[in-house]
Amino acid sequence: MDNITVGYLGFVVLILLIFLGVRIFIAAGLVGFLGLLYMKNWKVAAGVAGMAPHSEVSNFTLSVLPMFILIGFFAHHGGMVKGAYRFAKAWLGWLPGGLAIGTVFATASFGAVSGASSATAAVFSHIAIPEMLKSKYQPAISAAVVAAGGTLASLIPPSAILVIYGIIVEESVGDLLLAGFIPGVITALIYILLLVGMFKVKPELGPSVTGISWGERFASIGGVLPIIVVISVIMGGMYTGWATPTEVGALGAFIVFVLALLRGRLNFSNLSQSLIETVKLSAMIFSVIWGIVTFVRFLGFAGLPSAAAEWVSSLPISPFATLLVILLMYLFLGMFMNAIGMLLLTLPVIHPVIISLGFDPIWFGIILVKMVEIGLVTPPIGLNCYVVSGVRPDIPIEKIFRAVLPFVLADIAAVALFVMFPEIVTFLPDLVKGR
Fold first, then answer.
1. What whole-number distance in Å separates Cα of residue 168 and Cα of residue 29?
2. Is the confidence at residue 78, as pLDDT, over 80?
């Protein structure tokens, strides 16, 4: 059996193992090791499995992940989530669907200090859904807003998914984080316009918030100031170039830690919980990277990435038609796989194809993360919907999936917008490079 055939067979076996429930890092590491053993010998297989993962996970760039994760836990325990939600409710509640719009604003704000979509969905299931139900909002739309709003954390920096994408394809993490900011804000605005239209057409979905004084509005500003500070540090540090993503991540975590202490919200119990959860989540991500790196080396020895790139480049269709096929593939995969596993599994093959077609890898990274966001709310897996349903078992999962459909269509429209006008994505990175 030639190496290319072995590569394809290994890919099929890996997908089968994942669908059978084997953890991604175990399945990828095992298939990669056995494939190298078959094609080469024990010395090569053991050497790759032992050295390649270490060289990747000891990369300084990867240390940005624990910092971004820690920011999210500190922000949660420091009460910044509730502050952002009170601000959004006070200033946006008067609009049609005001509480739902406030939730989108608050999830986007928390995403700017969290970077984890499922965590954002879980937190706002506790905070926003009770408020909306108390105001007589329909349960399904309340849950759908939280599930869809949580996806914004995948795009608005700091984003763990963008960091992982940058590491896999060896692109600038700083450029990716900058590139995600404007598309993230535009996606939030599209959600808000969608909600205004939905609640105008169907006022029975929920009433606007009335009776909030200007004094209450101005008093709520203090609750969102810590988030503004953290966003300014992260974006300003990367935009000006005075700090690397890891350094601004560490500084952001320190600022949130100090603010939480000053507000009296951080005690020994939730401090230790934040640190433990950060370590657990980081270890999970690093384990997946370890397994996938071994598998990627196997694909490299098999020659599969370059063969796939040559084959796709030779197809008698336009590059944009090929891009559409790739995006549809990710839409399908997103229904069955988690985001990190999907990126780590497919990018070693897809990235060379994207380069051979002449597309900007930074731009493609943002488009890809948008597709990942869609996968987070589409059945049958739709992780964010299950997270919300887990917190609120009184809201049936099938109703959440139905109610989230308009947000899926809004995301598809956003992807089309970014494909037609790539300058939206590349504006900030190009501005930094040209300054």
1. 16
2. no
Q: Which two tokens stand for residue 340?
A: 């990190």
pLDDT tens across 205-240, in order? 888 887 788 888 888 887 788 878 888 887 788 777
CA 166 to CA 364: how far, in whole Å? 11
Three-class SS state of 206: coil
* DSSP code per residue over 73-104: HHHHHTTHHHHHHHHHHHHHTTSTTHHHHHHH
Pick from 174-183, 275-284, 303-312 the range whose average pLDDT is largest: 174-183
Neighbours of 329 (CB within 10 A): 13
| Tokens (6 digits) for 331 | 């839409």
Number of Cβ atoms within 10 Å of the Cβ of 340: 19
Report how far residue 252's alpha carbon sits from residue 233's, in angstroms, rounded to the nearest whole number.
7
**What is the residue whose two structure tokens read 């992982």?**
164
The number of beta carbons lying within 10 Å of the beta carbon of residue 328 is 11
Torsion 164-168-169-171 (CA) sign: positive
Is residue 385 within 8 A of residue 122, CB to CB? The reply is: no
The structure tokens listed for 350 are: 């897809």
Measured CA distances, 70 to 232, 353, 375 (Å): 17, 35, 25
**Number of neighbouring beta carbons within 10 Å of residue 289:** 24
Place of tokens 């055939």: 5
Residue pair 45/36 in contact (Cβ under 8 Å)? The answer is: yes
Q: Cα(385)–Cα(67) distance, rounded to whole angstroms?
A: 26
Q: What is d(CA 314, CA 152) in angstroms, rounded to the nearest whole number?
A: 36
The amino acid at 101:
I
Report the distance separating Cα 411 and Cα 106, nearest Å.
Answer: 18
Nearest to 165 by CA among 10, 53, 292, 331: 292
| Alpha carbons within 13 A on the beta-carbon side of 80 | 34
Residue 331, number of CB atoms within 10 A of its CB: 17
Residue 412's nearest CA partner among 148, 217, 156, 165 is: 148
Residue 303 dihedral angles phi and psi, to the nearest 5°: 80, 20
pTM: 0.82
Peptide bond into 380 cis (omega under 30): yes
8 Å CB contact between 220 and 121: no
Considering only residues 92 and 417, tell me which one the structure prediction assigns the higher pLDDT. Answer: 417
Report how far Cα 74 is from the mean position of its chain's Cα atoms: 19
Q: What's the pLDDT tens digit per position in 19-68?
A: 787 877 788 888 888 888 888 888 877 877 777 666 666 666 677 778 87
